[in-house]
Amino acid sequence: MWPTDPDQLAAVQVALAAEADEAASWQVPDRLLLGGCWVCFARGLTGPGQAGDPAWTGAVTVRSGRVRSRHTGVGQAAGPYVPGLMALRAGALLERAVRGLRARPDVVLLDATGRDHPRRCGLALHLGAVLDVPTVGVTHRPLLATGDWPDDRDGAMAPLLLEGEPVGWWLRSRAGTRPLAVHPGWRTGVDTAAEVLRAALHGRRTPEPLRQARHLARRSRARAFTE
Questions:
Q1: Is 8 helix (H, G, I), strand (E, B) or coil?
Q2: How far from 27 is each of 61, 181, 187, 195, CA to CA, in Å?
Q3: Interatomic CA distance for residues 122 and 154, integer angstroms
Q4: CA–CA separation, 110 and 91 (whole Å)
Q5: Is the CA virtual torsion 176, 146, 189, 214 positive or negative?
Q6: How far is residue 172 from each of residues 30, 34, 154, 199, measured CA to CA in Å?
Q7: Which residues are bridge partners to 162 per DSSP?
Q8: DSSP string, 105-140
Q9: Which of 20, 26, 115, 119 could form an S-S bond across to 13 if both were Cys, CB 3.0 to 4.6 Å?
Q10: Cβ distance 57 to 212 under 8 Å?
Q11: Which of 36, 23, 30 is nearest to 186 (CA)?
């Protein structure tokens, strides 16, 4: 499910986008076990990188703001970074990170888009399909979608549109800060994605599962250069 050829990946994305249209929607449970995963690469890389670049991953589960399980991993990028083809570089790394968790999360958050994509299948949707777990993407900016920023108040939202279709939200996690772009992924719609993000914030600008997973990955990278 993680092709290393761009044309093959594009074909997989088209097929997964069609599957996602037919997939049953997911309802957010009352006691939500949130997952988050992150990948980082060696400092000092220039350009899009290349296959073989060393990579460090972190994954966590969080319930009620507390980390319940964590996993770190080391690997190599399968390719360079190309917009719309991020799965080439990081898909398999993130899959292994999530599968390394002791408990299966109800939903996984990651730094990637979903329907905001030229083939309507960004890495957030692709990873969820591979894991068969609902997913939500959270990024600092959209890939192709456009929309005005929301009002400067906690929780304010404004739609992100691609060719007239709602594919996500701008969501102001905290007044006075840049809003986050929220992307529905596998088995999640635009409203569900926003509900998950609000549940994951715990008063911070960055959702707690992503913040914790990022910290794990970066700490693992730092250890690799000090040991």
A1: helix
A2: 18, 21, 9, 10
A3: 27
A4: 11
A5: negative
A6: 23, 20, 6, 14
A7: 165
A8: -SEEEESS-SSSSTTS--HHHHHHHHHTS-EEEEES
A9: 119
A10: no
A11: 23
Tokens 């995963």 -> residue: 37
Task: From 201, 200, 185, select the one nearest 134 (Cα to Cα).
Answer: 185
Lookup: tokens for 130: 């591979």
Cα 19 to Cα 88, 122, 130, 180: the distances in Å are 20, 14, 12, 27
Task: Give the residue carrying structure tokens 């509900």.
Answer: 195
Q: What is the pLDDT of residues 131-163, one digit of tens each?
A: 999 999 999 999 999 999 999 999 999 999 999
54-63: strand order across its sheet: 66-76, 54-63, 34-41, 107-110, 135-139, 180-184, 165-171, 157-162
Q: Which segments within the chain are labelled E, that is strand?
A: 34-41, 54-63, 66-76, 107-110, 135-139, 157-162, 165-171, 180-184
pLDDT digits (tens, 9 = 90+) for 17-76: 999 999 888 999 999 999 999 999 999 888 889 999 999 999 999 999 999 999 999 999
- Taking a C-beta distance cutoff of 8 angstroms, is the pair 135, 127 a contact? yes
- The first and second tokens of residue 182, run together, are 């929220």
